[in-house]
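Example (one chain per record):
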Amino acid sequence: MSAALLVMAAVPAPMAAEPAQEKRARAEAQGAGHAASDREHGPLPQWLYDSRERFRTLMRLLAERAASTEAKRAAEAKAAEETKAAEETKRAAVAKAADEARRAAAEAERAEAEARRLATVKAAEEARRAAEAKAAEETRRAEEAKRAADVKAAEAAQRAIEAKAAEEAGRLARKAADAARQAAEAKAAEEARRVAEAEAAEEARREAEAKAAEETQRAEAARREAAARLPCADAGAKVAGGGWYVVKRGDSLWRIARVHYGHGKSYWRIWSANRRLVTSPRRIYPCQRLYIPRSRAEGPSPQQGLRVALEPFTRRRAIDTRLPGFIE
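Predicted structure:
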C-alpha cells in the first residue's frame, strides 16, 4: 500500500485531469492487462495493477521530459553557435573596416606628402626660372644700353658726314620727290579712267540683261495668251464607256468625275489612270487629253494601261489649283 502511495505521489498533477476518452482507453488497457495477468498468475490485488500502470505512465512522462530537455539543449546550443558565428562575422567586418580605414588614412597621408613634395619642387622650379628670367632681363638691358650707346655714337658720326652733303642731298631729294609725285598723279588718272570704263561696261550689261528679261517676259505672255485662245476639237465632250477626254477651260478632275461617274469623289480614278500625264490632281490644262476609265458597272478596259503609257502629254495653261473639287 505504501508503494502505491509513493507511485501516486510521483505522478505529475496533470494526470488527474486527463480527458474521459483517455481514461476509458486506459481502463480498457488495464482490463485487458488484468485479464492476461489473471490467466497467467491468477487474480492480483487492484492496487498492484494501479501501481504498475502509474509506474509506466511515470516512466513515459520522464522519457518525454528528457527528450524535451535534450531538444531544448540542442536548440540552445545551435542558437549559441549561430550567435557566436554572427559575432565572429561582425568582428571580422569591424576588423576589415578598420583595416580599410587605416589603409585609406595611409594612402591619404602618402598623397598629401606627395602633394607637398610636388609643391616644394614646383616652388623651387619657379624660383629658379624667376632667377634665370631676371638675369636674362638684366643681360638684355645691358646689351641694349651698349647698343644704344653705339648707335648714338654712330648717329653723331653720320650727322657729321651728312652735314657736309646736306644741300646736295636735299636738292636730289626734291628732284626725286617731284618725279615720284608726277608718276603717282599719272597712275591715279589711269586708274580712274579704268574704273570709269568698267562702271560704264557694267551699266551697259545690266541694261542689256534687263531688256532681254523684259523681252522674254513679253514673249512668254504672248505665248500664254495664244495658248489660251487655241481652239480644241471636242473639248468638254463626255466619253462613254471609257476613252480619251479633251479638257476644256474651267474643268477640274472633280467636275470631270462628276460628269462621267455621277459623283466627284471618284476623281482619283482619273488621276490614277493619268499619272504619267498629270503630276498633281490640282493642275490640268485646256486641250489636255485625259483617259477616262470605264465605270465599275461597265467593267475595266483591257487597253487602258497600254493607252495611258503611250499617250504623250502637252503642258498648257493651268486652270485648276488648290482643291480638286474647286469649280470656277
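Caption: Residues 235-310 form a domain with the Membrane-bound Lytic Murein Transglycosylase D; Chain A fold (CATH 3.10.350).
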